[in-house]
Amino acid sequence: MRPRPEPKILLDWLTAQLPNMLRTLKTFVCAESPSTEKAVADLCAQVIAAEWNKRGVAVELLEQKKRGAHLRITYAQGKTKSRSQLLVLGHYDTVYSSGALAKMPFRTAAGRVYGPGVFDMKAGIVQALFALDAIQRSSAVLAKKMVFLWTSDEEIGSESSRKLLEAEAKRSDAVFVLEPALGPKGLLKTMRKGVGEAEIIVRGRSSHAGLAPEKGVNAIHELALQIACAKKWNNLPRGVSVNVGLVTGGTRPNVIPDHARAVLDLRALRINDMRRIEKRLRGLRPILPGAKLAVRGGFNRAPLERKISAELFARAAVLAKGMGLTLGQGTAGGGSDGNLTAALGIPTLDGLGAVGDGAHSPGEYIVARSMPQRAALLAALLLQS
Fold first, then answer.
1. 19: how many CB neighbours lie within 10 A of its CB?
2. Which of 339, 329, 337 has its CA nearest to residue 194?
3. Rounded to whole angstroms, how far apart are CA atoms 64 and 92?
4. DSSP class of residue 325?
5. How many Å from the N-terminal Cα to the C-terminal Cα in the chain?
6. What is the structure's pLDDT at 357?
7. Interatomic CA distance for residues 270 and 210, integer angstroms
């Protein structure tokens, strides 16, 4: 049995591959992939699939009715009989509409690489591709098969991919998420807030605001009282936030409004806090006589708590040290598909993707020299898991 290569050997080989990594990254970034444009996203999926096909792995394009195809890539050595698998998870869709390349073209400057989706998260897909190269080159005997899953709709809620990725996670011993790293130090994301969205809908009774105000039930007044209640649920030191981001209601100033609506952004760092917020939402009752109240929605991604990442992060930190690197951890305020796999109780390590900044902005970039380091870390984790 050939021993697993030392992490530093992986890093040295991958460092020499940086020019190839950047060429591949340019190919992926120049294949635009907006979440909501199926035909364009499908073309990007084919471009990515073509690169993985060169590695002699099983590549599946899982077609979707309304979204781009998801890609499932499986690598298992010929004699591997184990049912155990490791899941590498990410997405190729971006928040940028077709034509964004004209305004923010792929370019390199001062050690940085710019372009739509380069940070979130096409560089992560490239790093995983070259991590596989390093694994295949090592000829190490693998005890588990590896599944790489790249989805097309993470940026818009993972509606078409959620069942697929959860099914793969349930078959996996661990999940490695190639979402971007946190901050310039490349921290791994060992905690993520749970996220959700809720609506408070109020029905009142319209009336003339001057002639018969007593006959009306002001839906906006009722909604304002409910918003005041929800504001008290905020606890920023604990990572709990309830933000009223949209309010609508009424028709004219001289009419008592009979309808009003608020949309709330919900976030919590702990599962207990998430449940507490949802219980309070369901417990809201009308305050003004005659008002009617309905609450819809809630959390759609549970928090990724540190305990689900702790063991994997400790392993990653040791492997990074073997490469002469220092690895830190942090907390992300947004959610990812890693929240979904963690909610199933599967050990999940997030933020293994590119180091950079500016996600979802015209200045989005990655630090080029970090790509081999991140690829080597992923390869070492897959070989040691």
1. 9
2. 339
3. 14
4. -
5. 17
6. 97
7. 49
Mean pLDDT within 205-223: 97
| Residue 8 to residue 6: CA distance in whole angstroms | 5
* Cα angle value 377/13/310 (rounded, 5°): 5
Beta-ladder partners of 367: 112
Q: Provide the token pair at 359.
A: 């996600």
Strand ranges across the sheet with 58-62: 58-62, 70-75, 145-151, 85-91, 172-177, 348-349
How far is residue 318 from each of residues 4, 153, 178, measured CA to CA in Å? 15, 34, 19
Mean pLDDT across 209-224: 97
What is the separation of C-alpha 209 from the centre of its chain, rounded to a whole number of angstroms?
Answer: 48
Neighbours of 100 (CB within 10 A): 17
Q: Which of the residue ranges 4-18, 38-52, 290-304 would you say has the lowest mean pLDDT? A: 4-18
Interior angle at CA 130, CA 126 and CA 135, nearest 5: 145
Q: What is the pLDDT of residues 41-100, one digit of tens each?
A: 999 999 999 999 999 999 999 999 999 999 999 999 865 556 799 999 999 999 999 999
Instruction: Give CA–CA dist 78/53, Å, rounded.
Output: 17
How far is it, in rounded angstroms, from Cα 338 to Cα 225? 36
- pLDDT digits over 322-350, tens only? 999 999 999 999 999 999 999 999 999 99
Is the Cβ–Cβ distance between 86 and 146 less than 8 Å? yes
Q: Residue 77's pLDDT is what?
A: 82
Count CA within 13 A, CB hemisphere, residue 377: 33
Residue of 129, 189, 198 lying closest to 337 (CA atoms):
189
